[in-house]
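Worked example (supplementary).
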Amino acid sequence: MTINRQSFWDQDTKTGLWRIVLEYQDKRSKALDKNNLKEESFREEIYQVKSQALAQIDQLKKQAVVNLEANGIRVFEAKDDNQARKIIEKLLEGKKRIIKAKTNAFGEIDQKGFLSDKNLQETDLGDFVISLLGEPEAHPVLPALHLSPAKIAQAIEKKYQKKVAPTAKGVAEFARGYLRKKINQAQAGITGANAITADGKIVVLENEGNISLVSRLPQTHIVVAGFEKIVPSLKEALMVVQASAIWGTGQDWPAYVSIIASPSKTADIANETVIGAQGAKEVNLILLDNGRSRLIEAGFSELLHCLNCGACLNFCPVYHQIGSHYGDKYLGSRGVVFAAFSASFKKAKSANCFACTLCSACLENCPAKIDLPELMRKLRTLLEKEGLQTRENEKMIANIRQFGNPFGKIEAGKIPKELYCC
Ligand code: SF4
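After joint prediction of all chains, the assembly is encoded as:
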């Protein structure tokens, strides 16, 4: 068997998932209306913003580095996950209490044992819950969507000997109290970025408020982000924020948007600038490549338009069946394509490259108009050239060679034993 079809969801969760998706679809159109946006023209604008930025990414990156450093933000470029881990370990030397907010790029470089001596604490509620239960992420925006409040409350009670109401509110209240203490004690905070501007600003959106705390309260702030997050200016960055909110959660605007232009500072006394007032004293940005340059070189740059909103998964028939088994560090078809260039073609195959139905539901729902079905088709061609095709494909080709059809020997009046669909 070459396709991993293990079940991820139980039947109740599958039904619940459709309920969430249909509510989301309704909220998304209302959010577009509230912002007076026409869906197709806004998607086209986002497509243009991202493709034009990528077309001049080397130039924008150079400008961003110069401007961020001029503002006192240290910038590191990591060519791969290994290099990124080394930079982070160095930045965290001597620090023992680290907090983290949602960052997908960090997920690319995280490895068992990495930072195990740092008491790394997740502060995003969904990520906190899945790390507590040792579960995989079920969705980039709703990582714990497959877990019931009752199951989570039980796990909290077991681990922290604390009775928690088996409701979303009960779990959120517990996490607020528990995580606030960890945040106050932390020496460094790790976040991602939704956009970085060539004129030197890091833009992060959120609803929970944890990202603001993680980026401001500890002395050291580390941002981990792919270089494709760079856009020319705040105008484009705020379009990315708006699209991420609308397509991510169906909101017209997120609860908070932080624009970080430098470490915290004050000139209140004697007009002398002192770095480190109430916010982070050091801001470090790690710009991650990790296969992105290879993606661009191989003609897959459209994948880097991704805002990580998760909308492509919401309507994907494969994801609705096999959940987290579809993809790798990122879920779904974009995770498969990313795996091919950040890890290997073999990894893309085991991430279920051949499970995609090419139905285009992802493309229709993507704010950045990424033609994922076309990218999957292109990737399959490359995989097949490397001999990494499915057993079914091999059999069809052998049948065509031998019998002139994909099904094998045809006997009059009989249905072939194995029917394939390509
Ligand atoms: S591929 Fe498109 S829909 Fe999917 S997460 Fe990225 S931006 Fe969102």
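Two points are worth noting when inspecting this output. Confidence is low (pLDDT under 50) at residues 1-5. Residues 247, 306-312, 334, 365-368, 370 surround iron/sulfur cluster (CB under 6 Å).
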